[in-house]
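Researcher: Going back to the complex we discussed earlier. I've cleaned up the inputs and rechecked each line, so this should be the final set. Can you rerun the prediction on the complete assembly and write out the structure?
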Amino acid sequence: EVQLVESGGVVVQPGGSLRLSCAASGFTFDDYTMHWVRQAPGKGLEWVSLISWDGGSTYYADSVKGRFTISRDNSKNSLYLQMNSLRTEDTALYYCAKDRGAGDTAMVFDYWGQGTLVTVSS
Amino acid sequence: DIQMTQSPSSVSASVGDRVTITCQASQGISSWLAWYQQKPGKAPKLLIYAASSLQSGVPSRFSGSGSGTDFTLTISSLQPEDFATYYCQQANSFPYSFGQGTKLEIK
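Model: Rerun complete. Updated structure for the full complex:
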């Protein structure tokens, strides 16, 4: 059974930093592109970032480019999101999501974690 | 950037009804479209990918159609567990955007 478990969400002040983690199990982690998708309270879904199976390619939404860094450790079946220079508009539930394509990036999310809440507030 | 527009934003229906939700892309995306279902307090669930392919384990009452700029999600006979919010998402080009969501409520 595929499982994705996020952690690291807390309340942080504007301008602060935070690192989110996602522990994956139930599939061959290093075969798949992984993503972060966020959802502000009461709002819709926003794709944030992706990392290829080997970590060689990363992409970001314009709203986070230059502030967030995605990474992975395939030896630990783990995905990370380093979030710097946080803004109030970054307040959201952050989901880790698995790409549907094996060995390729399909940009379709077939498994999601339950999310970790990041609140940026003074 | 490609904008995804869903309609309606909300719809009320009864168990057993047939419901259709539409999604329009601001430019052509071929068949690179997915549909997700989200229930309150839960993560989204993939229903349809490549516009019309049913994800494994999803009931056959869900179907998708369309290509280019216009797409539909149809639920043939609503069940109580189908009341949720539905999102479309384009997988054609960066940045990979979602529609604003359609809330399906019980009449």
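Model: Worth noting: The mean pLDDT of chain A is 96.
Researcher: Good, that matches what I expected from the previous run.
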